[in-house]
Design goal:
With 165 residues, the chain is α/β, with parallel strands linked by helices. The chain has 6 helices and 5 strands; from the N terminus they run βαβαβαβαβαα. The structure holds 4'-phosphopantetheine (PNS).
Length: 165
Amino acid sequence: MMTAICPGSFDPVTNGHLDIIERAAEIFGHVIVGVLKNPSKKSLFTVEERSALLQAAVSHLPNVEVDHFQGLLVDYAKRKGARVIIKGLRAISDFEYEFQMALTNKRQNPEIETMFMMTKNEYSFLSSSMVKELAYFGGDLTGLVPDQVIAALDRKVHTRGLSND
Ligand code: PNS
């Protein structure tokens, strides 16, 4: 059975991420959603909160597992027995950074392949940063993120801002 990893910060998960995860789950026998725990990068949600929101959003997909990792993605993939990393591409603007990451990862471990999927057109503008900005300023998030994420964002922006200043 082929295992693929869908890595990301997922701060928070969006319907764009879920589209990629669902499509990966149709192709691969086992999909691990790897949530990056990065102590040096400020995130709105903790890794536990990000994982719980993802878990709720993928509960209808029996072959999808939510996990988190620290350190190099290729090392994590190897530990998990995954040969494939799945990334979503939204626009040409994503390409340069994704290309750089894919080649870096390939050099670190040539056995692991990065494969790209184009996002659905309707999510091509969507990002976690935009979602946070909309939430912070009271924008409408309907259809962009799961309902549980809307509720979690509501709670979060009322208790804490996006920055420490
Ligand atoms: O959702 P994001 O923030 O765009 O995801 C980026 C992610 C998690 C895929 C990337 O930051 C990553 O792989 N981090 C782990 C560290 C690593 O392996 N770095 C070397 C390749 S860039």
